[in-house]
Structure formats: structure tokens, C-alpha cells
């Protein structure tokens, strides 16, 4: 079958902006892209972590960014355009996560997770899409999660934000593909990061950030729309999503017990 996006056979001089690149999947993705010859802008609040990568490679640029600050998005994008002349691919990796049951959620905590995981994406899109649409090329990649497939325990706010990103990626593809802009939906399983270190439960098929980055990079290179991994775990959740609610809730109940 033909891929839904245009494959990227040569990453040399591709201008990639990774938002949320100070650690975890974002940092590992930056290393993958740099090794492939791309020009990479790394953004996060912690500029020191970004500079460790940027100082080691002439093709890397560290741009400090608070994703909750709309004006900061504009300044960051201007800085990248001045250095690289534009952006070919934006990967939205920034995320907030707290493992919590529904009765443990606080309004302030929920508002922050919603703002970081979903609201900030719209701020980024408002800055980069006009130029991509004008020239008829570019790419948008949203890092969602398999937590957006079904209602999983302890993902009371995180899960709904990732479900929203899955929905948004589908809308973006319908809107942007006819205009020449590629869209990628990335749904990782459990990845060993600072965020998942907060979990106090068993995480099946746990993988490293480096392994996740390789899967994402391979998927984008081949032009896939949805990039989900590891398949032995993600396909199980996809199957659960197809079950009647009675069976699905029974299986989720077993997850809660374990």
C-alpha cells in the first residue's frame, strides 16, 4: 500500500523543529535527526539541556521556549527562520503527565496538563502553518500516546489529552494533505522517561527513549501517517478498542487490579 505521506529518502538539510527536546523522546529524536544530516532546532524551557546537544553539532540550534507563552512561540519561530530560513517539519513532543485516578485530579493540575498537551499545539500550529500552506510543503508530527486509544487507569487527564491529539491529527491530515503538508500521528507505548518514572505500576513492553526515537524516525522516513509501537502492545489496545464496552471494561478492570 502507498504511504499516506511523502517518504523522506534524504534528511540532509531538512529543517526540523523538535518542541520538547530537553529529555526523553524529544532529545533522542534530535540525535537521530542530526545523525541523518538534518538541521535541528531544539526547544524546551530548560535551555541548558538543549545546549548540551547544540554545542556538539553545528547543525543544531537551541531555542528556549515556554510552550504556554503564545508570544514565545512567535519569537522562537523567528529565531529558527533567521538561522535556517524556515522549517520543513515540526515535531510536537512537549507533554505533562501525572498518574492519577479521577478522584485525585485537581483543577489546577488538569488545566496545566490540558494546556501543555493540547493548547500549546494550537499555538505552534498558528505560527508554522501559514508559511507551510503558502509554499505547499512541510510536515506536522504530533506525539500522542496509546493512552488515547482507550480509557486507561491513572490517565485521568493525560489520556483525554492524547485522545484529543489523535482526533486533531486526523483533522489536520484531512485539511492539510490537499495543500501539500504531511501529517504524522505518533502513538508510543510505555517509554522509559522522567514522566513514566512517576508510575508505580507495571508498564508492559517498556522501551527506551532511543528505541522509540528510532521507530518514530523510521515511520516518518517511510511516510506513514500513524506510527505506533511496540506492535505487540499497541495492537492489543487497538483490539480492545474494538470490543463492546462490557468486555472492554472487564479487561480494564483486570488492569486496575494488577
Automatic annotation (TrEMBL):
GO CC annotation terms, alphabetical: membrane
SUPFAM superfamilies, alphabetized: NAD(P)-binding Rossmann-fold domains
A GO term, aspect molecular function: oxidoreductase activity
Tagged with keyword Oxidoreductase: yes
Protein keywords: Oxidoreductase
Keyword Oxidoreductase: yes
One Pfam match: adh_short
Family statement drawn from the similarity comment of this UniProt entry: Belongs to the short-chain dehydrogenases/reductases (SDR) family.
Protein name: SDR family NAD(P)-dependent oxidoreductase
Lineage summary: Bacteria, Pseudomonadati, Pseudomonadota, Betaproteobacteria, Burkholderiales
Amino acid at each position: 500500500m502507498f504511504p499516506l505521506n511523502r517518504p523522506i529518502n534524504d534528511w540532509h538539510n531538512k529543517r526540523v523543529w523538535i518542541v520538547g527536546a530537553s529529555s526523553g523522546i524529544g532529545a533522542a529524536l534530535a540525535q537521530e535527526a542530526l545523525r541523518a544530516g538534518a538541521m535541528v532546532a531544539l526547544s524546551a524551557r530548560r535551555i541548558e539541556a538543549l545546549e548540551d546537544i547544540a554545542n556538539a553539532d553545528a547543525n543544531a540550534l537551541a531555542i528556549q521556549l515556554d510552550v504556554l507563552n503564545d508570544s514565545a512561540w512567535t519569537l522562537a519561530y523567528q529565531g529558527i527562520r533567521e538561522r535556517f530560513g524556515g522549517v520543513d517539519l515540526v515535531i510536537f513532543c512537549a507533554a505533562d503527565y501525572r498518574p492519577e485516578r479521577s478522584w485525585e485530579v485537581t483543577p489546577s493540575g488538569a488545566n496545566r496538563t490540558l494546556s501543555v498537551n493540547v493548547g500549546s499545539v494550537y499555538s505552534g500550529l498558528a505560527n508554522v502553518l501559514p508559511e507551510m500552506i503558502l509554499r505547499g510543503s512541510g510536515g506536522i508530527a504530533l506525539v500522542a500516546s496509546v493512552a488515547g486509544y482507550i480509557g486507561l487507569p491513572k490517565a485521568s487527564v493525560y489520556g483525554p489529552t492524547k485522545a484529543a491529539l489523535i482526533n486533531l491529527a486526523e483533522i489536520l491530515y484531512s485539511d492539510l494533505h490537499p495543500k501539500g503538508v504531511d501529517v504524522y500521528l505518533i502513538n508510543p507505548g510505555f517509554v522509559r522517561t522522567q514522566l513514566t518514572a512517576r508510575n508505580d505500576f507495571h508498564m508492559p513492553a517498556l522501551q527506551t527513549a532511543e528505541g522509540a526515537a528510532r521507530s518514530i524516525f523510521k515511520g516518518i522516513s517511510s511516510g506513514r501517517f500513524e506510527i505506533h509501537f511496540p506492535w505487540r502492545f499497541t495492537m492489543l489496545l487497538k483490539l480492545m478498542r474494538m470490543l463492546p464496552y462490557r468486555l472492554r471494561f472487564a479487561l480494564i478492570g483486570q488492569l486496575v487490579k494488577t
